[in-house]
TrEMBL record:
Protein name: ATP-dependent 6-phosphofructokinase
Positions bound to substrate: 138-140, 175, 182-184, 235, 276, 282-285
Taxonomic path: Bacteria, Pseudomonadati, Pseudomonadota, Alphaproteobacteria, Rhodospirillales
Similarity comment: family membership: Belongs to the phosphofructokinase type A (PFKA) family. Mixed-substrate PFK group III subfamily.
An example Gene Ontology CC term for this record: 6-phosphofructokinase complex
Protein location: Cytoplasm
Species per Swiss-Prot/TrEMBL record: Hypericibacter terrae
Catalytic activity: beta-D-fructose 6-phosphate + ATP = beta-D-fructose 1,6-bisphosphate + ADP + H(+)
Annotated positions for site Important for substrate specificity: 116
Length: 358
């Protein structure tokens, strides 16, 4: 029998609880192991006493399958190798995390994370001899070697629904609606939602744009007799001159959103159109996972348990060609996957007459 730990790390997304439930069901009911849920990512292992709970199958009701967020809590990107202290300094607390793993007597740990989390978890695993298996989650879908990560599909669904709701009000008021969506470094959410939601313009960091071209597209639409338009902008898109504006500053504090306002203002000035901007923000992360995320989450959870049984560590479960396989965690983090400007979806969008402003 085994005792395994599981933790969620980095930004939350829809489907994390579905992963937890799948791991617990397969590990306990089928294998007879014990599963320990670690609180707040690596912070639970750093705490004394260690902050963790035993996860039993009877507590893993189907409610969890549908529930957004993570019942274990997640790290607030607190890196144990450079842990921020109250006085502003940072200290290396990695040994405390490793000691926490030992205190719990864990045989292995499943980390649900994105590339930032995996880099930290791998370092911990190597330093302390921890047996690590990774499950990819990121709404941004920029992890390498897996076609899809948990949370992305729901985020695309939410952004698509936002366009469904913006279109009627845009049409009623003859407005250009700008929707800013998430994606720290990649335009996957913007591209997929833009196609699914019938956008006229999609701006992503992978394709450089000129406002002149975007304005020309809006003017074109007007000439054809349509008085409204939908523009999707990924948060990571810089201004036309290349300045990053992911965060706007209000009262000296960085708050969410930025580029959507820039595009909206510029478009209004250049075309005379009335524009409005919506920053979708964290709505893309919370909420119940859609069907595809639930399926991927549970397939990953079951497979991760099988990897531990097979003694395959330092591996990440991945979705490729309609199946779950396992890949090197290191390689997955090294080959982050942004939008391919020559890929199928960009080609599809261009075929539909969607402009990238290039
Ligand atoms: O990586 C996921 C993500 O949601 C990005 O899309 C976004 O840039 C970032 O996290 C937001 O981070 P925070 O929740 O810390 O504001």
């Amino acid at each position: 029998t085994k005792r395994i730990g599981i933790l969620t790390s980095g930004g939350d997304c829809a489907g994390l609880n579905a992963v937890l439930r799948a791991v617990v069901l397969h590990a306990t009911s089928n294998k007879g192991w014990e599963v320990i849920g670690l609180h707040q990512g690596t912070a639970g292992l750093m705490a004394r006493p260690v902050s963790a709970e035993r996860l039993d199958p009877y507590t893993m009701t189907t409610v969890l399958l549908r529930q957004g967020g993570t019942v274990l809590g997640t790290t607030n990107r607190g890196d144990p190798f450079a842990f921020p202290m109250a006085d502003g300094h940072s200290v290396d607390r990695s040994e405390e995390v490793i000691e926490g793993y030992r205190q719990l007597g864990l045989d292995a740990v499943i980390g649900i994370g994105g590339d930032g989390s995996f880099k930290i978890l791998r370092r911990l695993a190597q330093q302390g001899g921890l047996n690590l298996v990774g499950i990819p989650k990121t709404i941004d879908n920029d992890l390498g070697l897996t076609e899809i990560s948990v949370g992305h599909d729901t985020a695309v669904q939410v952004a698509t629904e936002a366009l469904d709701r913006l279109q009627p009000t845009a049409a009623s008021h003859d407005r250009v609606m700008v929707l800013e969506v998430m994606g720290r470094d990649a335009g996957h959410i913007a591209l997929s939602a833009g196609i699914a939601g019938g956008a006229d313009v999609i701006l992503i960091p992978e394709i450089s744009y000129r406002m002149e071209r975007v304005a020309a597209k809006i003017d074109d639409i007007k000439r054809q007799g349509r008085n409204f338009a939908l523009v999707v902008v990924a948060e990571a898109v810089p201004t036309e001159s290349g300045e990053p504006v992911t965060r706007i500053h209000v009262g000296g504090k960085a708050t969410y959103g930025g580029i959507g306002h820039y595009v909206s203002e510029r478009l209004a000035a250049m075309t005379g159109a009335e524009t409005r901007v919506t920053v979708l923000g964290h709505l893309q992360r919370g909420g119940p996972p859609d069907a595809r995320d639930r399926i991927i989450a549970q397939a990953f959870g079951v497979h991760a348990v099988d990897l531990i049984e097979a003694g395959k560590f330092d591996r990440m479960v991945a979705w490729q060609n309609r199946r779950v396989i396992d890949v090197s965690i290191l390689e997955a983090t090294e080959h982050s996957q942004v939008v391919d400007p020559k890929g199928t979806l960009v080609h599809t969008a261009r075929g539909l007459g969607i402009s990238f402003g290039d």
